[in-house]
Amino acid sequence: MHQLNTDLVISSPGRINLIGEHTDYNDGFVLPAAIDKAIILKLGKNGTKSDCRIHSQGFGEVVHIDLGNITKSNNDWENYILGVLYELMLLTDKLRGFDCTIESHLPIGSGVSSSAALECGLAFGLNELFNLGLHKWDIIQLSQRAEHNYVGTKCGIMDQFASVMGKDQHVMLLDCKTLDFEYIPIEIEPYRILLLNTNVKHNLAFGAYNVRRDQCNEGLDIVREHFQINRSFRNVTMDMLNACRSEMGDVVYNRCSYVLQENERVLEAVQALRDRKMNRFGELLYQTHRGLSEQFEVSCPELDFLVDFSKEWKEVLGARMMGGGFGGCTLNIVHRDVAEDFIKEAGKAYKKKFSLELSAFHTVPSKGTSIMEKNG
Ligand code: GAF
């Protein structure tokens, strides 16, 4: 293999989301943070006009991409790269050939959004390398478009936002309608944020995400046939939903009522954090999990099992599935004194039930995408 050039090293973190799931693409509220685990991208100009050499250490392969001929690949991870390059080429003519080595410290498919970390890290790094003059919001939004157009997931803005905008020891309350956001210090001693990774990703996940989005839109359209409101979920009330319930049918009604309730929970959770009412904060996480499992139907037996298991521990204030669903991690708020025992016991019970290994990691809210090293 050729020696790849490195002028710049970028760290692009994964994210957690404390509360506010499946609300981002419904103009709602979310409360994410970047985490202390990241994808590292080593980038350098290679002197060519359009030849990009991308080396994924995890997949052990080097792919060549011609900037003059960007088309979708059958290779999933490559589409994240191709999507970002495609979107960048629409915005600028300053991009030239480059080398990139990708080293991931994020568990793939675990719900901490390695995909957004990769997209944003690449866009951020190329912006720096070629002086493209993009702002952070350009990077966030073009990375989201890359995922829509090249990967095919019609994701919201949360993951890309969290990866780029993260701040040490803070979570972020983002209003996905206005894109206003606020940093909120996270002072939860003696509790810890613990992720339990089911190590499963049910293949339903991909299509089901877009289906949920369509169902929410369908509900919104039905409400708008009866009430004069602008096309945003934020203008919908529970009374409106109830008035349209029979027309919507149970499935669409359940999706929409979940979204309205979840938005309220996010705001209440922020207040609980500010008031240091950690017990209430934990209860809200359990409520969210129930909504995701029963109304939004994006959980799975492995996630439900872990959340139920956590309820047997009074030192665990709350737990819920995190991210898009159908696998990945649960997020747990655990007293530091029992964290190790909890991990051990959860691992044993999980293995007994599913014959699968559980992995666990603590996270702390951390800074967003940043430059680790720059040569010259
Ligand atoms: C995935 C998506 F990418 C996010 O935009 C968000 O919708 C999340 O699922 C669910 O809250 O991570």
From TrEMBL:
<dbReference type="GO" id="GO:0004335">
    <property type="term" value="F:galactokinase activity"/>
</dbReference>
<keyword id="KW-0460">Magnesium</keyword>
<dbReference type="GO" id="GO:0005829">
    <property type="term" value="C:cytosol"/>
</dbReference>
<dbReference type="InterPro" id="IPR036554">
    <property type="entry name" value="GHMP_kinase_C_sf"/>
</dbReference>
<feature type="domain" description="GHMP kinase N-terminal">
    <location>
        <begin position="79"/>
        <end position="167"/>
    </location>
</feature>
<dbReference type="InterPro" id="IPR014721">
    <property type="entry name" value="Ribsml_uS5_D2-typ_fold_subgr"/>
</dbReference>
<dbReference type="InterPro" id="IPR000705">
    <property type="entry name" value="Galactokinase"/>
</dbReference>
<feature type="domain" description="Galactokinase N-terminal">
    <location>
        <begin position="8"/>
        <end position="41"/>
    </location>
</feature>
<dbReference type="GO" id="GO:0046872">
    <property type="term" value="F:metal ion binding"/>
</dbReference>
<dbReference type="InterPro" id="IPR006204">
    <property type="entry name" value="GHMP_kinase_N_dom"/>
</dbReference>
<dbReference type="Pfam" id="PF08544">
    <property type="entry name" value="GHMP_kinases_C"/>
</dbReference>
<protein>
    <recommendedName>
        <fullName>Galactokinase</fullName>
        <ecNumber>2.7.1.6</ecNumber>
    </recommendedName>
</protein>
<keyword id="KW-0547">Nucleotide-binding</keyword>
<dbReference type="InterPro" id="IPR019741">
    <property type="entry name" value="Galactokinase_CS"/>
</dbReference>
<dbReference type="InterPro" id="IPR019539">
    <property type="entry name" value="GalKase_N"/>
</dbReference>
<keyword id="KW-0119">Carbohydrate metabolism</keyword>
<keyword id="KW-0067">ATP-binding</keyword>
<feature type="domain" description="GHMP kinase C-terminal">
    <location>
        <begin position="270"/>
        <end position="351"/>
    </location>
</feature>
<dbReference type="GO" id="GO:0005524">
    <property type="term" value="F:ATP binding"/>
</dbReference>
<keyword id="KW-0479">Metal-binding</keyword>
<dbReference type="Pfam" id="PF10509">
    <property type="entry name" value="GalKase_gal_bdg"/>
</dbReference>
<dbReference type="InterPro" id="IPR006206">
    <property type="entry name" value="Mevalonate/galactokinase"/>
</dbReference>
<comment type="similarity">
    <text>Belongs to the GHMP kinase family. GalK subfamily.</text>
</comment>
<keyword id="KW-0299">Galactose metabolism</keyword>
<dbReference type="Pfam" id="PF00288">
    <property type="entry name" value="GHMP_kinases_N"/>
</dbReference>
<keyword id="KW-0963">Cytoplasm</keyword>
<dbReference type="GO" id="GO:0006012">
    <property type="term" value="P:galactose metabolic process"/>
</dbReference>
<keyword id="KW-0418">Kinase</keyword>
<keyword id="KW-0808">Transferase</keyword>
<dbReference type="InterPro" id="IPR013750">
    <property type="entry name" value="GHMP_kinase_C_dom"/>
</dbReference>
<dbReference type="InterPro" id="IPR020568">
    <property type="entry name" value="Ribosomal_Su5_D2-typ_SF"/>
</dbReference>
